[in-house]
Design brief:
single chain; 4-stranded parallel β-sheet
Length: 195
């Protein structure tokens, strides 16, 4: 419905960037997982990607002028994430969607790619920050600073990523500079994952 509404309001769509996602409860091992949370993650992260993409693909094919589709997956969708199986599985699904759709629409000059962020500073970690701060009896700001410093030490580049780091890659994928790329999942993770 959202994709169809945008097409109706704007008259045409050339580029779709789908970055809607939820993370779910972190650090919950599969044996302790909740089926309702798994369903919510798949409904938003994977079925949501399908729902927003379907009308845009139909529109782009009917226009016959090519286009760009960019989905947000995750490094977790390429290597798994202990205690985050539902999130990782939903993002593996997004990568499968991207690769399959890329094959379906390549002949129509519609490029379909994914961005796979690593540890990026966003509001997806806010609840984890608040909970950790309460457990440790410190302010959220102090917990956040300590957490980001610790995480940064595990990243070859030495820091967590920013939204600007991601936006630069999305801008490239949305431009004509990426016209010969499709079905790719680009890691933007400071070197944590290199394939």
């Amino acid at each position: 419905a959202a994709g169809a509404t945008v097409i109706e309001r704007l008259g045409k769509v050339d580029i779709l960037v789908n970055c809607a996602a939820i993370r779910g409860t972190p650090n919950v091992e599969l044996a302790e997982g909740d089926a309702a949370e798994w369903k919510a993650l798949f409904d938003v992260n994977l079925l949501g990607a399908f729902n927003i993409t379907k009308p845009v693909v139909r529109h782009l094919k009917a226009r016959g002028e090519g286009g760009k589709i960019i989905h947000f997956a995750s490094v977790a969708g390429r290597m798994g994430a202990r205690g985050n199986a539902a999130y990782a599985a939903s993002k593996w699904g997004v990568i499968g969607l991207v690769q399959s759709l890329a094959l379906e629409v390549a002949a129509q000059r519609i490029n379909v790619n994914a961005v796979c962020p690593g540890m990026i500073i966003t509001n997806l970690r806010d609840q984890h920050i608040e909970d950790g701060a309460k457990r440790q009896g410190v302010t959220a700001e102090q917990f956040r600073a300590d957490e980001y410093a610790q995480v940064g030490k595990m990243i070859p580049i030495g820091r967590m990523g920013t939204v600007d780091d991601i936006a630069d890659v999305v801008s490239f994928l949305a431009s004509s500079q990426s016209d010969y790329m499709t079905g790719q999942s680009l890691n933007v993770c400071g070197g944590v994952r290199m394939d």
